[in-house]
Amino acid sequence: MRSDTEFLSTAPLGSPKESDPPPLEARRSATLPVDAVEQTGAPKTTSYKRIIVCCDGTWQDGIVKKHRWQYSNVLKLARCLNHEDTRHDPPIPQIVFYQSGVGTETNTAATWLEGATGETLGDKVQDAYAFISQNFQPGDEVFCFGFSRGAYTARMVAAFVGEIGILDKSQMDHFADIFVAFQKRGKTDDPQVKAECQKILAPFNAGNSKGIVRANAAGRLFSLKCVGVFDTVGALGLPKELTMMTAQSIFGFNDTLLGPHIERALHALALNETRADFNCTKFQQTPEGQSKGQILRQCWFAGSHSDIGGGWEYHDLSDVTLSWMAANIDDILSLDLEYLNTLFNPNSPWGAQLPHNPKTGVFTLAETLNRELPKPNDLITHETIHPSVRRQKVMIPAVEQLLKDHPEIEWKLLPFEEAVEKTWPFIPGRNVPAGQEATDEVEAQTSEEKTLKSMAKTALEPVHKTTTLHEEGGRPVNVRSTSGSWLRALLGRTGK
């Protein structure tokens, strides 16, 4: 039985030691700001490292993937993290933990059982938290990243850090009891059960508890540096026809509220995802988080669920979201951006790739639910729409109108994103990859294009027609309007 986690080497690509797990290095020192220098001229130093947990999505296992295009954005991000941040003197160590997604057993039956029930999701949460606990020392910075249900896992881990801080190794003996009490408290409406759960949690979530004191020992405002996720779905994220339980029967986790202990939260969201059981779970900022200067950025992109988190052979859209995430963390983590650029292998101009139809394969009969549109100027969700959406051949009509009515909702590209757009390595006329998976992708993209055109036509009908009475028979007829003719011409350029 193989392990579903790995320590990732972040040595440069091609290094003889690339496949070796990084050693548990001695703690390093990082220089404090200039105003902290003593009168002797010697800088005061603080010892800390960065602990980065990367949780992959359902059926995503980067450890056994044979091709780069199969990598999710979580794996790509994990592998482009440098071993240390040399922008500081001395450098800051970066320890990376990659965790494969739910449903990645080598046994096919076990894989589908895990994926359909989410039965190991609790184990994923505990393993990720245990890694932090095992390696954390007061003053360290903690980061959590995830995709799909891995994003749910990352957010649960972050929630535990907010609830109980970071337990030391000896306290981890109690984590199973804490986990169960945490679940029960969230699921029940019975005051007595809630009180019993809180009694179990009290020694660990009190303000002076050991875990909370450890997490905040450095005197920082935030105990968790960053949570970055790609299209979070709930605990299951599968069609109810395939599952054996509901998300509510697994966890009592309020995963919408963004804990005020998190300094920065980043969320890439899919505009073209229509499966009801893959509905996104947006962050909602609390007044306490706002007052502390917490950063929340939630950006919408063209594409369905896996177009955001990666895994398709045609991965142009997920490369755009990966670039966005990298641009938003480059100031707080050291990334190998040269390696990241080698992962781009586009089949279309920047932002122009057609989204994949999410309702294919086992999801063909999945219940449909259109996602709620982003809210302009919402100080709770802080949503934007990425400018790459404008490059789509056919845009969702409501999104196009939203951008027209509220131009301020459009995300402003960061320097790394601008560089990626400028140097996007698209080669016109490039041969389509051979193989059944590539063929399936083309079918999924063609299907989604037809869906978008149908939506555009439906939205167009009330605009390009007006209802009047026929002069002779009093029969309602449709008369074309000027604006409708313009829209019809625009639609015609995309094909029927």
From TrEMBL:
| Name of the protein in question | T6SS Phospholipase effector Tle1-like catalytic domain-containing protein
Residue ranges, annotated region (Disordered): 1-38
Where is the T6SS Phospholipase effector Tle1-like catalytic domain positioned along the sequence? Answer: 49-327
Q: Which organism is it from?
A: Sistotremastrum niveocremeum HHB9708
Highest taxon of source = Eukaryota
Q: Where is the composition biased (Basic and acidic residues)?
A: 17-28
What high-level taxonomic lineage is stated for the organism? Eukaryota, Fungi, Dikarya, Basidiomycota, Agaricomycotina
Q: Which Pfam families match?
A: T6SS_Tle1-like_cat
